[in-house]
Amino acid sequence: MSKQTPMMEQYLRIKAQYEDAFLFFRLGDFYELFLEDAIKAAKELEITLTSRGKGAEEDRIPMCGVPYHSAEQYIVQLIKKGYKVAICEQTEDPQQAKGVVKREVVQVITPGTVMEGNIIEEKDNNYLVSITPLAEDRFGIAAVDMTTGEFKVTAIDGLEGLYHEVAVYKPKELVIPSTFSEDMQQHLQKNLGVTLSFEDGQAVDNTLFHKIEEEALVKTCARLLNYLKKTTKRSLDHLQPAIYYMANEYMGVDVHSKRNLELVETLREKKKQGSLLWVLDETETAMGGRHLKQWIERPLVSKDLIEKRLSLVETLLDRFFERESLREQLNGVYDLERLSGKVAFGNVNGRDMIQLKRSLQQVPQIFETAAKLGNGYADELIGQGENCEGLRELLETSLQEEPPLSITEGNIIKDGYNQELDKYRDAMRNGKTWIAGLEQQERAETGIKSLKIGFNKVFGYYIEVTKANIPHLPEGRYERKQTLSNAERYITEELKEKETLILEAEEKSVKLEYELFMEIREKVKAYIRPLQKLASVISTLDVLQSFAEVAEKNHYVKPKVVYNGEVKITDGRHPVVEKMIDEGDYVSNDIHLDHEQEMLLITGPNMAGKSTYMRQLALISIMAQVGSFVPASAATLPVFDQIFTRIGAADDLAQGQSTFMVEMLETKHAVSRATKNSLILLDEIGRGTSTYDGMALAQAIIEYIHHEIGAKTLFSTHYHELTSLANDLPRLKNVHVSAIEEDGKVVFLHKVIDGAADRSYGIYVAELAELPPKLISRAKTILHDFENGDKHSIVKEVDESHQAFEEVSAAVEETVIDTSTQQAHDMEQLTLFGTIDKENEEESSKKKLSSKEKTIVDEIQKLNLLHITPIQAIQVLDELQRKLRK
Ligand SMILES: Nc1ncnc2c1ncn2[C@@H]1O[C@H](COP(=O)(O)OP(=O)(O)OP(=O)(O)O)[C@@H](O)[C@H]1O
């Protein structure tokens, strides 16, 4: 440090406080990065690394920089990569500074707190989550979305529960105590892929936590808030009071199941298209879009609430005209939540305010349309929302319709809003009219028609006369200001006076406009809470109209929600698959489950639609519990408390667990947590191990669920042996997805029918997948052997098959040679695979054979050795010999 310049000393002192962030150090018009930061940033941002200082290379300081006016794009790049950026500004005027200019970090931007640059998709949330240990194996979780102000808190038991709950928020950053063990930190990072931040501050802000009773949970919220204060260093007025919820207020759907069921994004490509969210999203506002996503992530378990939502969807579906008006009105509403956030955060501009105004102008009409529906829930919603009329009036009277992006260049405030501003504007406008008049007057007096009065930023106002006309100018009055190639520019006493007046008025009006804008912003701040309430009402209406729209488009029905555990779906469809295939091609299916029939054992060929059938039930149940209509012609559904699935490919292999282990862990998760009110979907459990192990496990799992849990369960399997379980387990029923064979081809009917399937058609599917023909043919041979009994010796047989194959082939050859040496000689081209290389030779050699011999040769030729087993080959050989001997 001692060798450093004072500025570098200052840098190092500040950097020491922000070790985990890139320090953007303001130097004039640039943000500079030094030392390690510079080396790393140059690489990440692909900018040039230079160095600072004199002397030998090793004494120089690595450095890189970005211009301050385009810094945002670089900051965004770093944040997207999971880094943090500390912005260090000059906090005094360099002209006034004695010694090194004072500098200070004014904000730390992190993945969980970023408000800048459109990093966050408008229909997405960006949650920052904190974890606090409450007691042994019990954790507090608090989550804030800085962009919308939403603040939630809950307590969770067990590590597994913790991961599942945190994962619901998909946070990019986690705030934890520094006392968390290394192990725990690594675990969190690995499982959740987040940036970790530490916060141990004790300060507690009671205004935001007054609804939270448990002391320990208040600390959880405080951890988050303290971190936010430290990093953002500005007003957090838009944060809403923390709301406590319990995980069991919602249907429990663990992370794996959410992924497998593709609720908000597809499993492989992580895209919205192809997910349930994609099908259900006909929202008109960004807020509605976020709301819908949250609803899908947390389906309800309260029958009353579900029915409330369903009733309004029904009304909206029936009232086409009102729905259409509502959609149009909602379309004019901007993102009130994010706008409120910007107001509080202080980065709102004139255009944002106009968006706010336009949104508020829609509100009375939205409420009016909703009131016309005559629906109890719609009335309740209207009652909760304030229409913020005062704010609308303020914005209508104060702001110009098309303000510029910048808030420091004027043209924001309307005429008539402020007297003083009007006065300056008058001066400016009058001045300009006066100047136009002066131009006419000067032209008349001098007789120079091309004389004009202009303005530029450097010289101010001037009278311009072309060189040719200069002799016509009267002496004395004109003072030369600027010479151009073919003209001279002058000023007169009179013009100078007016110029001062106009410029002064302009300067003052811009300054005043800025002050007025700040004042308006403060006034808007007072409306943040009502705006947030309004946002919540509008988003709810938006999601429900979206459900009605989707229901109409896709012919969904209102589900009947019951408490007796009955599932009765008539003509159910998979909401996503039916949209992905040609219209009308989806084969609908019924499902019936109740106390006497709790489990379905589903068999059927590969590709028949077993998983689709299972997912269909899960998705229909989730849709009903978020308040949506469902794809069926009639549906009675219970309120499931949890859904467990083990379907599809295991996606945790990257985390070092085997497919089978993942399968077993997920099964454990299901059987240890499910209740009789849960839904369990298990797809081919046990296939990842040896047949007998797998079958034994599958049977034990089915029996356990049947005897111990009583949850509604769909279990698909290829182990046909399991179908006999229906004889012993009274609440288990066999169903199968049907397929028929037509002209040697399998036709999947996708229809679920009572009873067990007879065969699998797995090889047919392999053929569809275009595996090599030789391989397919061999598989058919092996299958045939299996089906004809000797299952236990099959492995040995497979090993020996090649050898046997060759022996049989040799025997076939010998037989032919024995029959006639001459014939054998003529037939030397005859290959084992029944082909003759030269067709002509084949014909001529056949001519020399007797008709009996010819038949035999033909038979040998026709034989497809790849399609017969060694045993069959010997049988054929035996047959041929007998024919020859006859
Ligand atoms: N009811 C249906 N109507 C129309 N097409 C369907 C239906 N069910 C499934 N399909 C189509 O069949 C394909 C295969 O379905 P699915 O994956 O459910 O089969 P599966 O029986 O689970 O197969 P496997 O045993 O190989 O896992 C689906 O991708 C879908 O395109």
Provide structural commentary:
The chain is α/β, with parallel strands linked by helices. The chain folds into 6 domains: about 100 residues, MutS, DNA mismatch repair protein, domain I (3-Layer(aba) Sandwich), CATH 3.40.1170.10; about 120 residues, 2-Layer Sandwich (Nucleotidyltransferase, domain 5); about 140 residues, MutS, DNA mismatch repair protein, Chain A, domain 3 (Orthogonal Bundle), CATH 1.10.1420; about 100 residues, MutS, DNA mismatch repair protein, Chain A, domain 3 (Orthogonal Bundle); about 200 residues, P-loop containing nucleotide triphosphate hydrolases (Rossmann fold, 3-Layer(aba) Sandwich), CATH 3.40.50; about 90 residues, no CATH class. The protein contains 30 helices and 27 strands. The strands form 5 sheets. Strands 13-23-24-25-21-26-27 form a 7-stranded mixed beta sheet, with helices on both faces. Helix 12 crosses helix 19. It is elongated. About 35% of the residues are buried. About 5% of the residues have low confidence. The protein binds adenosine-5'-triphosphate. The site of adenosine-5'-triphosphate has 16 residues, from helix 21.
